[in-house]
Amino acid sequence: MTATNLQDTTTLHNGVRMPWFGLGVFKVEEGNEVVEAVKTAIRNGYRSIDTAAIYQNEAGVGQGIREALQESGLRREDLFITSKVWNADLGYETAIAAYEKSLQLLGLEYLDLYLIHWPKKGLYKEAWRALETLYKEGRVKAIGVSNFQIHHLEDVMKDAEVKPMVNQVEYHPLLTQQELLTFCKQQGIQLEAWSPLMQGRLLDNPVLSDIAGKHGKSVAQVILRWDLQNGVVTIPKSIKEHRIIENAAIFDFTLSDEEMGRIDSLNEDRRIGPDPDNFNF
Fold it and tell me: Is 109 helix (H, G, I), strand (E, B) or coil?
């Protein structure tokens, strides 16, 4: 089922409902910039905010959430908040401590989703045990991973008591990760796209421009629509109100099968982020 509005959700394999669309805050500056971005997104109908310990803006995200709730009359449970444990904290005790620190900075009592940020060799399985503990204790609603390839997922699931609910990866028309998407669908793991717009590098693409022109939409809107029609949760980043609004205005048109295929065929297996198999910071 494709989302029909900004508040539509996908149901994770544990029954938790996660919005199809949200705001990412990678590289959004701590302080007023991130506070205002979060408030602007929530004011304009977004219900999902995605941050991470390494972004160093969790305190500002938390402030933005509190102010937005106060202004809107929404409740905490109306929102879906995600953060991630960084590589330096990928032990059992250290991952639990990192979760506590993220909660403290955000000023929240729980997270909706907590992810292992990268599959650092030899460490992510201990961290996964920690996330399972947090989940079983009811301290986080859902747990998952980020930047995991198929072999990483298989490695985790071999010993896991709880299967990851989400895998957040770099995903855009030049990196369609078709095998990974198929695998995750087969396993009931929700794929989520980070950097869906390839940090703006796709906006002049002639194929995407042609499709966008036919629908009277922007290239960014076409890409984000393609995400949703592929069953991929998406979290574009922006700090500008008009762009935050525009990015979410994708529920009034549908890409045809032919258009979806043309976008799929743009794949070059090209990353702008690190290769998960060789990223050990």
Answer: coil
Answer yes or no: is pLDDT of 280 > 90: no
- Residue 219: its pLDDT value, please? 98
Instruction: Establish whether 110 is a catalytic residue.
Output: no
The arithmetic mean of pLDDT across residues 202-230, rounded, is 98
In a domain, 274, yes or no: no
> What CATH number has the domain bearing residue 160?
3.20.20.100
Domain count, the chain: 1
What type of residue sits at position 86? W
User: Rounded distance, CA 228 to CA 225, Å?
Assistant: 5
Out of 46, 55, 114, 124, the active site residue is: 55
DSSP count for the chain of H helices, then E strands:
10, 10
pLDDT at position 1 is 60
Give the range of the structural domain holding residue 16, as residue numbers without chain letter.
9-267
Enter the pTM of the model: 0.97
> CB under 8 Å to 97, separation ≥6 — which residues?
89
